[in-house]
Each structure stands twice: as C-alpha cells, then as structure tokens.
Amino acid sequence: MQRILFNEVVTRDGFQNEPEFVSTDAKVALIDELSACGYAKIEVTSFTSAKAIPMLRDAEEVMGRIRRVPGVEYTVLVPNVRGAERALESRADEFNLVMSTSETHNLANLRMPREKSFAGLREVIAMAQGQVPVNVSLSACFGCPMEGDVPEDEVLRWADRFAELGVRGLTICDTTGMAHPAQVRRMARVLRERFGALQLTLHFHNTRGMGLANVLASVQEGIDRFDGSLGGLGGCPYAPGATGNICSEDAVHMLHAMGHETGIDLARLLAAARLLPHIVGHDVPGQIAKAGRITDLHPAPSYVAELRQQFTSLS
Amino acid sequence: MQRILFNEVVTRDGFQNEPEFVSTDAKVALIDELSACGYAKIEVTSFTSAKAIPMLRDAEEVMGRIRRVPGVEYTVLVPNVRGAERALESRADEFNLVMSTSETHNLANLRMPREKSFAGLREVIAMAQGQVPVNVSLSACFGCPMEGDVPEDEVLRWADRFAELGVRGLTICDTTGMAHPAQVRRMARVLRERFGALQLTLHFHNTRGMGLANVLASVQEGIDRFDGSLGGLGGCPYAPGATGNICSEDAVHMLHAMGHETGIDLARLLAAARLLPHIVGHDVPGQIAKAGRITDLHPAPSYVAELRQQFTSLS
User: Where does the record locate the signal sequence feature (chains A, B) (predicted)?
Assistant: First the structure.
C-alpha cells in the first residue's frame, strides 16, 4: 500500500481568506500542534506585503517562534524577490511560488499577465539556487471560473518551463473545485510520465463535493502527495459559494480506512481540528471532526437491551 | 460510457427525518417536478403507520395525486402486510422492503430481531408475487454505528435469503456513511458476481465526506444504479452529526462531467434543488445548487480588462 504524504496549508491558504485576524500566538500554537501530528510539510505563511494580506503580516514572527520538528518541512509562499529575501532570513525549508495557467485568473488574482509572473518567479528561482528547494504551485489547472476549460497542453507548457529552471516540485492546483475524477486520472497519468523525477503534489478544493473522489482518482494513478487544509478552511474569492480546500482530516481518514499510511496521528489531528472553529470564530466544513471516524462507535439506545431480552424469552 | 440510473429518495428518506410537516401539496408538486427531471425511479412515500412517521401520514393522497410519467417507476416503502395492502391499492410500481444486516441496528431501528423482520417481509413478498416487483434495501451493509464491522458474509447471507424468495432488486445501503472506497470496490465486485441477474442499487451517505468517492468506486466496478436524495436531505438518527444521503444533483453533476449519461436534465434538477430549502425551511448540504456547475462561468472583475489593456500597451 502506497504511503501518502500531506502538506498542511491551513495557516496560509486557509487563514488568508478569513475576515478576522488570527493572533500570532494562536498561529504559532496551531502550527506547533500540527507539527506534532506527523505532516510531511506545513505551509506556514506567505512573505507577501502586509498591505496585500494583513492576516499574514506576522510572517517573520511566526517563522521565528514555531518549534521545528525534524522530518517536517516548513514551506512558505514567496511572491517575489523581496519576499524571497525575507523567507531566506526566516530560514524557510522551501519556497512555494504561485502563478496561474489561466491568463484571466492570473490577471484577476495576481494583477499581471502570466509572462510577467513567470519572469518574476524566474528571478526568485535564481536567488534560491543552492540555498533552498523551490516548489511551484500552478493555479486553475483543471479549469478557470472565468475562462472555462484550461487545455492540458497549457498546463504542461507552464510546468515544462518551470521544470527547465530546476524546481524540485510542482503542485497542480484545482483552485476553484472544477476537477472531476476522469480528468484527474488523465492529468495524473500525464504528469507522472512527464515529471516523474519531480516532487508532484495535487491540490484540490471540495467546492462541488468531488474533493475526496479526486483524491481517490489521483491515488489510483500513483500520486502520493496532497495539499490539505485543516477543517477544509480556505476558498477562492473568484468562486462564489466555494466551500474551500479539501479537508486534511477527512482525506487522511479516508486514506487510512483504505489501508494507506500517511504518518499522521489522526486522533491528534482531529483534536486540533476541533479547536479550529474556536480559533476562526465560525463553523468549518470538515466532516470527521463532527461525525467521528468510522471506528468511533455509539452505544445502542437503552430499549435495545430490553427488546433483546424480550425476544429471547419468547423463542 | 456506462449509463447510470438514479432512484430519488428525498420525499421518503429525506422528508422522514424532517421535524416540520411538509404539506401534501408541496410533496405532490415536488414529485411531479422530479418526474419531469428524468429519474428512473422515485421513492414516493412509505406505507407505515401515521403514528410511527407522521410526516408520511398522507401516503395514499400523495400516491393518488402525483402525475405518473411513463418510464418513471414510483416505488414505496412497505414495512409489513398492512402496508402492502395499502401500497397495492395505491398502485405502487414497486415495493421497497427494508431490514438491517446488523442485529443491533435492526433492534434499534425496527424494534425487532432480524429473524422477525425477515419473516414479516417474506409474507409481504408472497403477497406481492405476480402483482408488483419487490426490491429489498439492506441497511448497515458497510458497518453498524453500534456494532462496528458487519462482515461481508453476513450481508451476502441476507441478500441470498431474499434472492431465493425471487425479489427483483437489492439495494445495499451504507446507512450511516461508514463505507470507504476500497471496501465499496470489493463489495461491488462480489455483488455483481453473485447477484448479476438482479437489479443492484447502491445507497450511500455523505456523513464522512466519502459519498461521491464511493459512487466513483462503484461505477469503476460496473454498478449502474444509485439512490440519491435531492439536496443531500436525510440522515439517520443513530449517527449523530450525519449530513445525510448523497446529494442527487451533486452525484449527477460528477457523473455527467465524467461523460456518463443518466437521462436526468441537470439544469431542471438544480432548479428543483434550489426550491428545497424553501420547502423544508432550512439550508441543505448539496453543493452544486450553491457553487454552480463546473460549466457555469463567472465574469472577470472589471479591473482585469484595464490590466489587460495596460500590459498590452506596454509590450
């Protein structure tokens, strides 16, 4: 049975979409707890401008205060050269760079054409060389909420350009929950053929209920790395009604039930997930934290024992 | 591409768990609308006692007033011989009988041991012979929330006993959302080998987020019939925190995206789903009615056109 590795994105991708500031203390405490759960990687924060994303204005302080657990990689989102300098000073284990495969989505999200994004990220990759490994997250790879279909060839073209620059990993993102399992299987097959030497991660959203079906489809094609967000927190402002990233604990629960190892302590992860609504001040989409694991049994109603006795004495 | 058939259970399994009575007019109007959507089957109501399930006390009136569309089968839940008489008078196209494969679940839910349930249902099957086809829904086939594991052999033993009585179909139910995709694939394979001549239906709940993953796993093993509930309405009182049956429109949406035909007009079904919160007086779990289909695109923010022009004039 294939071992599956998770990258937890709740404190970056999840919190970034929250309206109320989460305190630095709460962020550090949550990341330390997640570190103890057994993740392969945690996306801690983003070195973007405090003006653009006030939620992550404490990136340096968070990176300075978390307890680093050996075996866990602490990755950070790096939007540009200035962010890369800050990330290096903060001793990030990996840079995660982001751009979209859809021109309209890139303009909407990053306010520049894809070519300009690529040129900027190429500078960041040059800076990182010999110092820190780079992962590139490509957005809207399974469809754009404004353009519609994003051809597979377009996704591969951008992936190729980054692979040629020597990045360690690629994350293929279904940014607004448009992927379906047949499409995922095709994409996973092509990615593994073409980028088998790179660290390949898939990033799904559960916007249309297909999140775990897409994880299943990916695993069936040999994919072994996923982004997940505690509680299913996160979402994209360009997909109204979206319910967010796939929920880490729901995905881990399914994979464990199927016999896969993840290295994650699910009981401990669920305890962390049950604290999340108190941290963000509202209910979150994750289902296992509410319904319990399939192994969490319930007592029978009291009348069952009486009925059992009654029918036994009759027979 | 395999054609997939749906049985809509919202007005029976869904409404049965609702606290507020849904008017007979509203039930008839909804069923008539669902009939026009292209379902293979609709489980209209249950001929149980009005005292046991007040919500379905209007079973005769609903069956008398709905418009029957050729090609749609109108099935009803029949708990006993008295219910069978009423169902025959109401010209039901099929009897759906229910018992659990878990002794504790059967005692909790039907307040009698499985053997007593079986004996009663055998009488109903004898009554139906030559008049109306019978389907048997077996509950808790993927696990019992009180007993835990339900061995596959136990499920097959009960399925065999009903098959020997000449029923037309079997519905294998994951009553409380405990099934996972690896288990579903194994079960589907065994069921198709053993009961290939019967109408085989799978019934999933999305309690733990695996509903559509389990549909995918079933389809991969050649299963072509599913129960679904509009809006994902329904649930089981013995599974606290449960989110209910798989959502019909979310399942149909996924299967259409993957290239399967279902005979269902998804746009019309979504219009019906969007009325459901008004009928039951609360939000429902279905996601496509909120997020839209993957083909429902959104306009780009107004600044995108400006940015596009600005960057074009620069280059």
Answer: none
- Report pLDDT for B219: 98
The reply to whether residue B254 touches residue A183, judged by beta carbons under 8 angstroms, is no
Asked if B215 and A216 come within 8 Å (Cβ–Cβ), the reply is no
- Min Cα separation A133/chain B (Å): 31
Question: Does residue A210 sit at the B interface (CB-CB below 8 Å)?
Answer: yes
Q: Is A187 on the interface with B (CB under 8 A)?
A: no
Under DSSP, is residue B106 helix (H, G, I), strand (E, B) or coil? helix
The reported pLDDT for the residue numbered B283 is 87
What is the predicted pLDDT for the residue at B309?
94
- Per-residue pLDDT of B244-271, as tens digits, reads 899 999 999 999 999 999 999 999 999 9
Backbone φ and ψ of B198, nearest 5°? -95, 165
Q: Domains in chain B, please, with CATH? A: 5-314 (3.20.20.70)
B37 in active site: no
Positions in chain B whose pLDDT score sits under 70: 236-242, 315
A-B C-beta contacts closer than 8 Å: 168
CB within 8 Å: B180 and A300 = no
DSSP assignments along chain A, one per residue = ----EEEE-IIIIIGGG-SSPPPHHHHHHHHHHHHTTT-SEEEEEE-S-TTT-GGGTTHHHHHHHSPPPTT-EEEEE--SHHHHHHHHHTT-SEEEEEEESSHHHHHHHHSS-HHHHHHHHHHHHHHHTTTS-EEEEEETTT-BTTTB---HHHHHHHHHHHHHTT-SEEEEE-TTS---HHHHHHHHHHHHHHHTTSEEEEE-B-TTS-HHHHHHHHHHTT--EEEEBGGG----TTSTT---BPBHHHHHHHHHHTT---S--HHHHHHHHHHHHHHHTS--S-SHHHH--TT---PPPTHHHHHHHHHHHH-
Q: What is the DSSP string of A60-125?
A: HHHHHHSPPPTT-EEEEE--SHHHHHHHHHTT-SEEEEEEESSHHHHHHHHSS-HHHHHHHHHHHH
Burial class, B155, CB count within 10 angstroms (exposed 0-12 / middle 13-18 / buried 19+): buried
